[in-house]
Amino acid sequence: MNGAESLLTTLTNNGIEVCFTNPGTSEMHFVAALDEVPEMRCVLCLFEGVLSGAADGYARMAGKPASTLLHLGPGLGNALANIHNAKKGFSPMVNIVGDHATYHLEYDAPLTSDIEGIAGPVSHWVHTSTSSGDIARDAAEAVRQAGVSRVATLMLPADVSWSDNPNGPEAVVEVATPPSVPVERIEEAVTALQSGANTLILLGGREVGMPHGHLADRIAQATGARVLIEVLPAKIARGEGTANIDRLAYLAELAIDSIRDIEQLILVGAADPVSFFAYPGVPSAIAPATARRMVLAGPRDDTEGALTGLAEALGAMATEPRVHALNLPDLPAGELDAAKVGMAIAHHMPENAILVDEGITCGMMVNMFTGTARYHEQLSQTGGSIGWGLPAALGAAVACPDRKVVCIEGDGSAMYTIQALWSMARENTDITVVIFSNRKYSILEMEYGRTGARDGVPGPSAASTLNIGSPDMDFVAMARGMGVQADRATTAEAFTMLFEQAMAQRGPRLIDAIVPPVF
Amino acid sequence: MNGAESLLTTLTNNGIEVCFTNPGTSEMHFVAALDEVPEMRCVLCLFEGVLSGAADGYARMAGKPASTLLHLGPGLGNALANIHNAKKGFSPMVNIVGDHATYHLEYDAPLTSDIEGIAGPVSHWVHTSTSSGDIARDAAEAVRQAGVSRVATLMLPADVSWSDNPNGPEAVVEVATPPSVPVERIEEAVTALQSGANTLILLGGREVGMPHGHLADRIAQATGARVLIEVLPAKIARGEGTANIDRLAYLAELAIDSIRDIEQLILVGAADPVSFFAYPGVPSAIAPATARRMVLAGPRDDTEGALTGLAEALGAMATEPRVHALNLPDLPAGELDAAKVGMAIAHHMPENAILVDEGITCGMMVNMFTGTARYHEQLSQTGGSIGWGLPAALGAAVACPDRKVVCIEGDGSAMYTIQALWSMARENTDITVVIFSNRKYSILEMEYGRTGARDGVPGPSAASTLNIGSPDMDFVAMARGMGVQADRATTAEAFTMLFEQAMAQRGPRLIDAIVPPVF
């Protein structure tokens, strides 16, 4: 058994059964080994940014890492932005990066680079295997390091891959589950909540599931505390039956204003909230400096267990949580806009769908209506690097082949990783992509105003860099060019009909929704 | 004048008049400053890998750097692969990477990352400006560091951008030109060449222009030395009037065999040749270990000056170089293949065209015919990271608006940075893109065989990862979707007609050439 086969077998022994890949010459023995280890499903992507985003979406839905296979430093570089997003969203990921044979590095061939240097800023753990006898053990360590919330990156030199591994594959390694919070922290939270101070409980992190919301609302009812959810948790349960809890606003000014009177902040998975960007005259921190902070559970802790412990300690478990009743918006009519798209999506999205949200400004309008739609889970952009949505939808669909995936995308963000459409078609994934074609980097136009530059009014050069409507892009043509059924909608009626159709069938579809900018 | 304006003015004062960009919120003051500094031309790209490849293509043709504007660590990550290619090709580049305001970094907002860490592996010089009073001086230093062959990366925190710079912009800085080689080296080369040893002169590096070839051939005639050009120099003059000099083969086995009897190797701009990848049983070094190496000129030296000095010392300047006469292939007929595409391109490509070659396996067939075409310059893939061709063509066209750019692209490599087509349309560049649609990562199929994996025959899983024909991609649809006129050719006659048309008109065009794999 060569190094590559022992590596692959170690991964599949440990439940890592999907590899999102775009290989090159240095990975050919890994590719060859795929035929010896049929338990590994290989999903080919045409660009590495697609596959790393897919690995993120997969991990969020599968609750375990996928592996990636990348071609040396530049392949890792192409994957970097979506690895960044995964890292910020606490997604586990096991990256395998092919490298030149160990003895070939000194020759400085064209693809030679400092791969560990590139991997470091986006990985929790980085290691280069230097012998085929070690590679299986190193792969097992990568799986252990990735656990359920970290990025592990393992370099696989070509000769380590092709040489014999006399030690064979590794067996199952123990992966740490999210740790329970100590009872003292729960007691501290009880004291804080019973102090009479104005308290905000902020939920967030890897997952804000249905139980999290129910528990938090029970605690709120028992103590009078407010509960909010951070702006962009990695995964959030929404719709019918979920607790009626708002999310903190994206805009720092609004968010600051909405919690300016709190005296205590209890964090459950969420980070102490901050403005996404700095603006002249706007504070970076969202919560008042005077508010006392306490962390009930960090993003890698067992947040549901912590909330359960807290609700039990408060005697609140019997309280009925206040939840969203199903409330579908009426079907819209007339000229299409982002809100009408949101109404149609909320109306027709089936129960248990996965909504991948990279709709940016237009996405906000969808979120206004989906809170009372049928129960679903929503994945959000955690790292701020656009070009995540289409790949994440691909990964979510690979993880959950029996669930409908709806991906809402800005036109600007879609173009970063538009190649994802091809893999959606190739894998016959059940994804409906909705592109908001407003022909602008609309959020940047808004942000330009917020930064105060030139009194908030872009001059002609600046305006030109925010305008992606010259030439107009035709997403229907692009999608069809990659094998995805696609249609355009300019009216609410047309969009509704297309979306309803898409919900009733299986397989990849794209709807190009021509809408005016929200702002 | 704020920091951003002083930065931009410093760049334009120093002849950097193009900025390839994809900005975000942290760069809004830079974007605003574009309206104050109209000397800077801003070229918007929909993905950062496009803009870094464009900056590379621009630099190769303009002989000076463009600037890029990138959005924090992930934006730099997206640009990384083509910065790698630029660095390996000795292209100068001045990257401006926006960052959070200095005081905002401690809050660890979603887009916070170790930008210097990401920049390091692909930059010769990395610096973070920390005060608006320093930014113009830092920008001037970036220009100086980039010079004519290096990558300089300067981080621009948002508050450094928006705050007042009391010192104003910097004036012109002195940029070092490629240094002349010391006369001792020329004397050493004369001695080596007159020793009677079997000698190879290998040309390469930033540029192998018409004069380089003429000079090298004069030297060859005077001394009996052989001359070759390295596999993929950054820029090479080809066609009518250029010296009749072969390039070293890409395949290590062939290259090794072709120079196995040399006793001396004189490097002029080229590196000591090595195999692109390691293969079991194949040496990494191409030249025999016994051959004596000498460097007449490094890739950053004045290679033309060095060859002139050597030719003069040998009394060879009066010798008539042996050059290619114009020899256009006949127009091909019948079912299309890569060789016929090459014949049609060689037949119709106008004088002084720029041929950007990322045709990979099919590109080899074009190169067989273009050596005796009309005089042109060819840009090659220097770093091995595919997804460079379309962006480089964009940059070359921006640098040379009066020259026809022909870009030959593999279908697999085209898909890495397909968004480049949109910028080609937006800027109304005079580029004709030829896509070789063979629906395979054809070179990987060949490489699979060379690595010896599974006796060179891919099993079904491996074969699937090398096959990009499921689903087939329609480049005509994709190109039209991005505003580029596009057509498909399945016969030699159709291709010839389309290509002749494209050569006769201005503006972006794409021809999807349906061809069988070369191997």
Automatic annotation (TrEMBL), chains A, B:
Q: What keywords were assigned to this record?
A: Thiamine pyrophosphate
- Provide the GO MF annotations for this entry: acetolactate synthase activity; flavin adenine dinucleotide binding; magnesium ion binding; thiamine pyrophosphate binding
The UniProt entry, under InterPro entries, shows:
THDP-binding, Thiamin_PyroP_enz_TPP-bd_dom, TPP-bd_CS, TPP_enz, TPP_enzyme_TPP-bd
Cleavable signal peptide: none
Segments forming domain Thiamine pyrophosphate enzyme TPP-binding: 370-512
Q: Name one GO biological process term.
A: small molecule metabolic process
- Coiled-coil positions are none
- Which intervals hold domain Thiamine pyrophosphate enzyme N-terminal TPP-binding? 1-106
A Pfam family assignment: TPP_enzyme_N
Entry's family note? Belongs to the TPP enzyme family.
| Name this polypeptide is given | Acetolactate synthase large subunit
